[in-house]
Amino acid sequence: MIFGEGKSYGLELFLRKKTGRLNGWVGYTWSKTTRQFDELNNGKAYFYRYDRTHDISVLLSYEITKKWSGSFVFVYGTGNATTLPDSRYAYRYGIDPISGEPKFVFVDKYGAVNSFRLPAYHRADVSFTYIAKQSKKFESSWNFSVYNIYNRANPYFIYFLPDIESQTVKAFMVYLFPILPSVQWNFKF
């Protein structure tokens, strides 16, 4: 078993407006989360995978009329810490009997734990809600929204593939959802 130590500290601020036609909130968090294991990273503390130094959320909601309302959401977060290989070795172990091509095994050598940060995550969403029918026993509404309105390519993880011809390794980033419109019909009874 490996035993270690984790530390987490930070500051959170939150402002909220609950009255009037325009309401919403702004939240901000500054934090630091580290891990330290004698057997990892030469015993040096490193950022935890989910360490997010800055986290900002903004929500604004506006009642346009009795039947129409609109909202805006913005979120920002420091990119996740990740560990990347700093070199790769290729070992040739034979020839493919069908294609005649050489066969390789690739071994990655990793650098310091979580010493690289993915790009920051941020997006803005907008939505409009129309209340179609409202009574004591039944409520029906339509919601029209767009997630990630400016189509930000938010990174999720990185993977690597070797390019045998150039004898290099290429990094590819996988991204979360692009712009995503949606329509919902909601009802309560």
Radius of gyration: 25 Å
The major β-sheet equals: 8 strands, antiparallel
Which word captures the global form? elongated
Order of helices and strands: EEEEEEEEEEEEEE
Q: Please, what is the average pLDDT? A: 92
- The total of beta strands comes to 14
| Number of structural domains | 1
**Oligomerization:** single chain
Number of helices: 0
Note the gap between the termini: 55 Å
Percentage beta strand: over 45%
> pLDDT under 50 segments (min length 5)?
none
Q: Structural class given helices, strands, pairing?
A: mainly beta
Which percent range fits the helix content? Answer: under 10%
Keywords, please?
mainly beta, two-stranded antiparallel ribbon, single chain, 8-stranded antiparallel sheet, 66% strand, 189 residues
Description:
With 189 residues, the chain is mainly β. The chain has one domain (4-188). The chain contains no helices and 14 strands. It has strands at 4-17, 22-37, 46-47, 54-63, 68-77, 81-82, 85-95, 102-110, 116-117, 121-134, 139-147, 155-163, 168-175, 180-188. The radius of gyration is 25 Å and the shape is elongated. The mean pLDDT is 92.
How would you summarize the topology of this molecule?
Elements lengths: L3 E14 L4 E16 L8 E2 L6 E10 L4 E10 L3 E2 L2 E11 L6 E9 L5 E2 L3 E14 L4 E9 L7 E9 L4 E8 L4 E9 L1
Antiparallel strand pairs: 1-2, 2-3, 2-4, 4-5, 5-10, 6-9, 7-8, 10-11, 11-14, 12-13
State the gist of this model.
The protein has 189 residues and is mainly beta. The chain has no helices and 14 strands.
